[in-house]
User: What shape does this take?
Amino acid sequence: MTDAAGPMLAADGTPLKRSLARALRRQKLRALLLIAPLLIFVLVTFVVPIANMLFRSVENQIVSETLPETIQSLDGWNAEAGGIPDEDVFTKLYIDLFIAEEQKLHTRLGTRLNYEQTGASSMFRKTGRAVGRFDTDTYTDGFVDANGDWEDPAAWASLMADAGARAALPLTARSWDRWKAVFDAEGKELKKRNLEDFLFTALYTDLNAGGDAAHAMVQSAKPVAEGLAQVSLIDAFKEADKKWGEPEIWQTLTLYSPNYTPGYFLNSVDLERTLDGPKVKPENEQIYITLFGRTLWMSLVITGCCIHLGYPVAWLLANLPASKANLLLILVLLPFWTSLLVRTSAWKVMLQQQGVINDVLVFLGLVDDASRLIMINNQFGTIVAMTHILLPFMILPMYSVMQTIPPSYLRAAKSLGATNWTAFWRVYFPQSVPGIGAGSILVFILAIGYYITPEIVGGTKGVFISNRIAYHISSSLNWGLAAALGTILLAVVLLLYWAYDKIVGIDNVKLG
Amino acid sequence: MKLTKTLLASTALTVAGVGAVSADGHMASDMTLVSWGGAYQSSQQKAYVEPYIANNGGVSAVWDESSAEAVAKLRAMNEASNVTWDVVDVVAADAIRLCDEGLALEIDPDEQLAAAPDGTSASDDFGDLLVSDCFIPQIVYSTTFGYRTDLVNGTPDSICAVFDTAAYPGKRSLEKRPINNMEWALYCDGVAKDDIYDVLATPEGQQQALDKLDTIKGDVIWWSAGADTPQLLADGEVIMGSTYNGRLFSAIEEQNQPIGMLWDMQVFDLDGWIIPTGLSPEREARALDFVKFATDTQRLADQAKYISYGPARLSSAPLVGKHADLGIEMAPHMPTDPNNAANTLLYNYEFWADYRDDIDAKFQAWLAQ
Assistant: This one.
């Protein structure tokens, strides 16, 4: 064969290489189609929700969606100077909050910002109630007195359809569009009484900024706007809540205006965002690093306990006659068939100070009645209860690996002069390592994510990071922070898995 | 063929069913009620749901015991646009949060709730207890202390007994959250009752409260479920502990445990109904109809036959009678009884809405130390 002979051809005349590739591709496609239902199922029910949840750890659109005008006009404002913005920004805030209040979004934003600045929650709730009563009705009355068309929604609509007027009154046009969209979305009609003061405030602002159009309504309003004294919205806001006059809320708004924020991640490693970049939180608020460290450390201890307790049991299981081994296996599996809560509560009954173990110790005279042992509501309790609960996950992989080790190897080692220990350590143990590896990975990863058991028996020192995640999901409702903590936990597990692969090798893990 | 027929038949049945429902005053016939389980939920079942079903044939109600996670679950349901609950029992603080997030329906008390028998409007009858636009108050409960009468010396009559480990040695159980504990700590550290929240709003005040709690930290078992303290008291694991007054009532009167009530500085809180937003008009109408019935004067008084929580209406108080099974007068066991309410605190909703995240971070960091 030489190159000159050309490529090898298949029976139908196409080059063999291409024909083979096509056949393989078809095969792959068929395989893919076969697993497609499972793949789609896993994607839809597992990957997508998790990705969605993790995405919340950076998501922060709520600020710019609720206060679009304010955020835009804060763009050029210098937060570091430590003052408060000017009247223009407050006008935008007034318009944004008025629209947000109608949609009941302002309290949601308050809740969001309260995670970053204490007091924001009541600030937005109070201000939301107050915006409808600001003194801006002088604008409304002034414009309506000059031209009755201003209190006619149809006249507004036709004015806002006029390109010239829109260009002259940009803020009014934008506010009108948003206001109308709110009513359209609810399927309601914008009525006369819905022409609220904030629309006229926008109009006043536009006209005094030099906006001018040939439209009759604009012409009638122009002199009114020039004649009317400006209502100080800074004062109005300060009256609603004096914190609007302090720099903190404005710094927080500036820091959290982008659509995506690293804030939740910083919080979950005990840092906080400031104008000068990330800063370590005060010592009396640091908790997450401690909890991450404790979770990893205690999970390692639990894994270690499971290895030491599980290995002899797995060895017995693998080496006893089948009838006895089956009975033992049922005993190992029995806890699986009992509810997790029942098992954990049982440990409570056993370990508490007036519990079974202490009672027995006192009865035997080993412990004085006044100094009963504290074995629960601390790390010891968590380790005992979790070791018990996770033990089957260690025993089963070990057992299935040990079953495949031929007993003749041990006998051969001994017949060649090895002591019992040498035979075990040099011959048997190395062959059982893959089982230990598999069991350890299972137990460790399960332990890291546990939360019910530590919650019940862990007291204050035996709780895990998952308890904080659960707290933020169901109690504080700070889902962003919960997502960030979850993402970090996931990253740590993946990192440890990678390290395990590098050090021990994942090929060394066997489930049987 | 058979499958097609079955499908057709079931579709026809469903259509007929829906038709029947809309004929019946445009109200859904199934309700999912959410509550806390246990004795409290069964008091609601007996006082509200059974009479309601007796009056409205064909209506059925199922319970979901998820009130503890109601806010998180409702938020998730709302995001999925599939709200499966019709009426939800929540504490007032959660009602405020649900209202803030737009997850609960706003209620006009005078339009949508029953007036008192003497004609007093619902808004006057409930008075200050209408703490949120979405909240329909049901009961006043309190978080207070119980102690083992056989394990402590004498009868403690001040909240500060909790912090006095010399006079009352032994373990105490406190809730694993800052709310209430911080107030009690400051009060027993000499802060005047009226100043508690002003002090607690400052970092120094928060530290002062934690320092006070620190003096008993080694003697505290922290609880997270209301049933923990009665159990810990019954086992003798703790000599005194905080929990909801109704839990202590049932431990004392129904289970005859040697437990005494320490009413001093009990913290009043409210519990009531909310109706989720995003229900179909039929379900919303049914939910409103049920809530109107379940919070009228007689029904609220009836609930007190089964559990020792005070009815939220002024007009219900005179109607409170005897316990349905035990036959004892319920009035002296109510947290609102003048003998019990000599020194009380009212849960400060606005303060905790603002400071909850901040103080909780410090509290948890302190716990973990």
Notes: Strands of chain B lie at 30-34, 60-64, 87-91, 136-148, 172-175, 220-223, 240-244, 259-274, 310-311, 344-346.
